[in-house]
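Hi support team,

I'm filing this because I wasn't sure whether my run with pyridoxal-5'-phosphate finished correctly. The job status page said complete, but I'd like someone to confirm that the output block is well-formed before I use it downstream. Pasting the exact inputs I used:
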Amino acid sequence: MALMNDMHDPHAGYRLPALFRQRPTYLHVDLDATAHNLAQLRERAAGAQVMAILKANAYGHGLLPVALRLAHEGVDFYGVAFLEEAVQMRHAGIESPILILGGLVGYQTKHFIDYHLDITASSLYKAQQISEEASRLGRTARVHLKIDTGMNRIGVRASGAVDFALSVAKLPHIELVGIFSHFVRAQGPDMSLADEQLEQFTDVLDGCKKQGLEFPYVHMANSSALFNIPDARFNMVRPGISLAGYPPGAHLDNGLGLRPAMAMRTEIVYFKGIRKGTGVGYMHTWNAPEDGWLATLPMGYGDGYPRILSNRGEVLIRGKRYPIVGNISMDQMMVFTGQDQFAVGEPVTLLGRDGDEFIGAWELATRADTIAYEILCGWTPRVPRIYEGEGWKPTTI
Ligand SMILES: *Cc1c(COP(=O)(O)O)cnc(C)c1O
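And here is everything the job wrote out:
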């Protein structure tokens, strides 16, 4: 296990002197689990290459440790949301192709080309901008065309996509590396929209092919489609949440044996008896139903633990569930342990496994009226990160 303090990763937590012992709240990331998940997904991809989607700080796990470990595992391709994420990866020594999935902001085009990054072209105008900038720099820009088959986020609508592709193909200083689209809904049970999207995308590919235009990389499958729609795998797939070890929906079991890589743990910092009827926390939203014991944890919504879980969430202590009581504060929260007595320093699990019990990101998400994605990437930078597993130390930074 290693602390991240010695790395220049702005998401890794506060930078502190070596050997400084941080507060006992930490995000634990098991990079061996990430590597295991990649291996399972590769098998499921059945020959298609894997573009590891590492946006939002690798779904909260820490961009550089995850990216470097996956490089160690020989991952083919990376995808992130924004330029800045990819630039950090290049500075950490990652040389594989990286596609920036998000829309291109014109003034950043030069940096995309400088850093050898794959650009998403979502309109002919953007493609022309890219071509002009590449020409100015005396370089060739690597481009993937984004086709909108229903998401209505970015991309050229399927109806105009063949003309778009042919026009981009004529632009100088552009290397057409790929073409892609994204599913609105592919986790089921209703697959009609996904089927329609896939048909639109396939029609675009056929139309291009008739005009003699083919692409090295064709990709459409997120985790859901990777599991559910074999025809959507083409020659590259784009899993994100499944690399983190979670299925893309609350009650899905893809039978893959994915392993959640993230755990969130802390320790009891204060422990005391509480009399029946005593109010706890801001606004006294909870009163003790009986005499018992109350644990205070040094963690709150300022760390990314959703405040909506006040009087709704649970934690694990010695493999047993206990309720979070009263309003969660910015930096602290209280847990009622009933008649069970613990000492200060007792480990507490907020996310992850403890003995036979497990609190997963989908459980937290369901209780908090959100999705596991938001739970995973919602931990704030002040939470120290601890990494387990080898192969992630950066070469240069
Ligand atoms: C986030 C994202 C993915 C990954 O989705 P998961 O559901 O996490 O597998 C794939 N492609 C695009 C364009 C995305 O934005």
